[in-house]
Amino acid sequence: MLLTNSAAWIPEEQAQLEVGQAPWPKVGDDDLIISTHAVAVNPVDWKIQSWGGFGVKYPYILGEDVAGVVVEVGANFKHKFRTGQRVIGHASGLAHGHAYGAFQKYPLLRGSLTAVVPDEIPLSEAVVLPLSISTSAAGLYTKIGLHLRSPGDDTSSFADKKPTLLVWGGSSSVGSSVIQLAVASGYTVVTTASLSNFDYVRKLGATEVADYHEPDVTTKLIDFLGDTKLVGAYDAIGSEITVRQNAAVLHALGGGKIVSVGKAPEVPHNDVEIVRISSSIIDNQEPNVAKEIWGEYVPAALASGKLVPEPKPLVTGHGLSDVQEGLDKQKAGVSASKIVIELHPKKAVPATQPRSLAE
C-alpha cells in the first residue's frame, strides 16, 4: 500500500509550474520525510525557472525552504527526531534530486539540515529561515568562507574589542540571518540597507547602518569601520556592483576577504580576496558546520528566542497551485519580507502508485 504525493513541477526548462502527482519518497538513513505545511520562495527559484541552467534535470521540483511535520525518520537520525515533530528544513534538491525539492506535499529532507521548531513559532513564520541559515553559515564559518568563530566557540579573546563584520544587504533574507548569526558569534556588525529598513537591521543586531542608495556609501562605511578590527565582508546581494563596493571599502582599510552569494568579479586590488559561496558547502564539503549550526545552534536559539524568523513572511497563497504566483511576486521584488505559501495537507490515504511527471 502506497501513499499519495503531489508537487508543483517545472516540467521543462523555463516552463510554468504544473501541479501533478509525484512519487512517494524513499527515506534514506540520513533523511526525513515531512508533511509540508508551508514553503517560502527564494530568488534562486525564479532564476532557475526564468534562466534555466543550474545543472537541473527536468522535470524538477523547485524550492529550498520548507516547514512541516515529521512523517518518517531515517535510521541515523532516530535519536534526534521523531514523527509528529514540527520542523524547518533546507530542501536540497539541487544537490540530491527532485525528491528533496520543497514544493511538494511530502519532501525528503537531510536530517543534518533540519531543526525542530518550538510550538510557539508558527511554521509559516519559521519557514523563512532554512536557505538563509545554510547560506549564512557557509559564508561565515567554513574554511572556504570567512572561517569565523561559531556561536558555541569561546569568545573570551574578544573581551577588549569585538571584531567587526561588514554585511552588505542586511535587510535581505540572507543578510538578516548573517547579522543574527554573526552577533551570536560575538562579532559587531556594520551593514547596508535602505533608509526605511534601518530600524529593522538594528533590531537584528547591527551597530551601524549605511544607506546603500547614497553615492558616498563606501566613504561612510570606511568611516564606520576605520577604528575596528575588520574580519571581512559578507555580500548578501552578490552583484558585480556591490562586490566592487565592498572591495573598495576593504582595500581602503588594508585589504581582506569578501564572501559573495553571487558574483565574484576581478577587482583592481591585490589585497582583496573574493570568494563565491553557496549553501551546499555545509552539506557536501564541510558537514561539521552543518552539525554545529543546524544540529546545535538553530534548535536551541529558536527555543530561547535568540534566533528569530526574519524577514517577516508575506503569505501569498494556500496551496501548490499558488506557488507560481509566489515565484512571480518574488521576481518582481520584495523588501524586508519573504514570500510564503501555506499548504494545509490532509491525511494521506492508501492508494495505488500514482503516475507522476517524473516517470
From TrEMBL:
Annotated ranges, domain Enoyl reductase (ER): 14-341
InterPro entries (alphabetical): ADH-like_C, ADH-like_N, ER, GroES-like_sf, NAD(P)-bd_dom_sf, Trans-enoyl_RdTase-like
UniProt xrefs under Pfam families: ADH_N, ADH_zinc_N
Keywords: Oxidoreductase
UniProt KW Oxidoreductase keyword: yes
GO molecular function: oxidoreductase activity, acting on NAD(P)H
Family statement: Belongs to the zinc-containing alcohol dehydrogenase family.
The protein's name in its UniProt record: Enoyl reductase (ER) domain-containing protein
Protein source organism: Fusarium torreyae
